[in-house]
Each structure stands twice: as structure tokens, then as C-alpha cells.
Design goal:
Layout: E1 20-25, E2 31-36, H1 52-58, E3 77-82, H2 92-98, E4 108-110, E5 122-125
Parallel strand pairs: 1-5
Antiparallel strand pairs: 1-2, 3-4, 3-5
């Protein structure tokens, strides 16, 4: 599932012009480093083009996204540990959704809305707690 949400403010993003690395840190401590190639953006239909979620989905990083990456839930909540200053500004709609996420910090963003500009490498932590930890059939 992917697409757009016509009921929210459109985020303004500067797409990267050169390659950079996103390091994803999973709750179990597993680290996945992804080299982002600006020529391949968008990687897929999920989240804003070039977003942390878009890149994750194309590279086998399991980042929850119940709404399909359209800023209508908070399950793709991530914490940008390094490089937040290179990401687009969050919208009021994004921050309204983040209010629903547990364990938010000042570096919290929705993976579907957060688009790094590639000025430097970033490190993203996927929190251990989110609204959808218990999946159907895996209780």
C-alpha cells in the first residue's frame, strides 16, 4: 500500500544530490548500513520520495508502516540520532501523528516524512516499542 494523503500539508523536501549512508539501528542492536543513490529516488511507492521509510523498504530494513507511508499513523516512528539537521522540517501533521507514538524524543520523526538532503551520513534508531509490536498470528 502506498500513495498520498490529500488531507495533510505537503512536506517541503530537498532531495540529495550526492550519495550518502543511512545507518539503521534495530531494537536488537542489529545495524544495517544503506548507501543511498540519489539517481534511484524514489526507491518505491511508500513514504515521501527519498524518505527514511522509502530507503528502508527498498533495502530490506523492516520499518513498520501501517498506513502505507502517508502520514496517517505513527508506526514508522524513528529517532534520528545523527544528521537530523540535514533532514527536511517536519510539518504540523507529522508532529500531530508523533504525539501518538510512545517513547518520542526531540529527535523523533516519522520515517515516511523525514527526507535527508544527503549533506552528511545519518544514523536512525528504530524504537523497540511501537503501536504494532504484536502482529496477527505472532502473539
Amino acid at each position: 500500500m502506498g500513495g498520498t494523503n490529500p488531507y495533510i500539508e505537503k512536506a517541503t523536501c530537498e532531495l540529495p544530490k550526492k550519495s550518502y549512508t543511512i545507518t539503521y539501528v534495530r531494537p536488537d542492536g542489529t545495524i544495517t548500513k544503506v548507501q543511498v543513490d540519489p539517481a534511484k529516488i524514489p526507491y518505491g511507492p511508500t513514504g515521501l520520495p527519498g524518505s527514511i521509510l522509502d530507503v528502508a523498504m527498498a533495502n530490506g530494513v523492516d520499518l513498520e508502516h501501517v498506513c502505507g507511508g502517508v502520514c496517517a499513523c505513527s508506526t514508522c516512528h524513528v529517532i534520528v540520532k545523527q544528521g537530523l539537521d540535514t533532514c527536511n522540517e517536519g510539518t504540523d501533521d507529522e508532529f500531530d501523528q508523533l504525539d501518538e507514538a510512545p517513547m518520542t524524543t526531540l529527535q523523533s520523526r516519522l520515517g515516511c516524512q523525514c527526507v535527508p538532503n544527503g549533506a552528511k551520513d545519518i544514523v536512525v534508531e528504530i524504537p523497540a516499542v511501537n503501536k504494532n509490536l504484536v502482529k496477527e498470528g505472532h502473539q
